[in-house]
Amino acid sequence: MYESLLIDERRNVLEALQQLEETRRKILYVTTGHGRLLGTLTDGDVRRWILGGGDLDGVVEAVCNRIPYSAKADYRIAEIKSAMSTHQINSVPVLDDAGCIIDVLFWDSLFQQGEEVRKGTSLDLPVVVMAGGKGTRLAPFTSVLPKPLIPVGEKTAIEVIMDAFAEHGVDEFYLSVNYKSKLIQAYFEELAPPYRLNFVYEDKPLGTGGSLHTLAGHLEGDLIVTNCDVIIKADYHALVEHHRKEDNDITMVVSLRHYDIPYGICDIVDNGQLCAMREKPHYNFLVNTGLYVLKASTLELIPENQFYHLTELIEDVKDRGGRVGVYPISDKAWLDTGEWQQYCDTMAQLRS
After folding, report:
1. Does residue 160 contact residue 255 with C-beta atoms inside 8 Å?
2. Residue-wise pLDDT tens digits, 96-115
3. Which of 15, 136, 175, 256 is most buried, by CB atoms within 10 Å?
């Protein structure tokens, strides 16, 4: 059924983003109050709206694609299949004479399994997983196990992360390790994963970016760097494409965080005089998730054998006139396992 894909034009962008997360189709059909199709809305549309400075309280009418591909009730199936193949369309709404949706045709329903397979390109770039930290926020568990080997479901946290990249065609990983590195190495020797795995050893803790200096001059093009305690549910192809299209030196993946204050907020001036009062305000923030796409050339800026965070690299790139961009995702697309409460929340979300 397609009813869950419909959204009224007067709904706001934040509501649309939440609805997009709840459907595996990753598209919404924006309709008027009379049910007429107005346009389509994808997470890419929302992302462009946010990057353009758009307000999440804005209505979806202003954000949606107003020229969607659609079919009439007397459509010819061959024409629909041809259009879907040519333009890489996953779904096509069928409209009556009044322009209202009466059905939606989906790729996986029109094409029999094996009849036609979408041609996707593999991500031909390496992924570096920063796995050297002690994970003190997950103590006492990390007194026994290194943080990357904390179980998430039936796998370890680092396996979940790496398997997600492997599904997008990534075949080369670098693991930066320090704390309990022998346990991590032994685990992967026993696991024997189907991808290439290289270890980068830190003799001492070097922060979230210091060990990357070792790779300077050995990698070309772009690379992805991720913390070992974040699971990002995103289209990595779209992320890398955005990074390259914007010609960024660094692209940060940021997650939308929405906070409602359940009280009236008072603004004061000198001597405690009330300036203004806001009743139960809400705020939206873009939060760094710990996943980045970098040009390999930026690694040359990292000092050798020094404690150095990736946030310092971002500042150094900016100071030199480089481009640092962001790639927004929804809050539900970011699963954090770095603290106990966040770990419990992640486990609950994976089970639901």
Report:
1. no
2. 999 999 999 998 888 764 44
3. 175
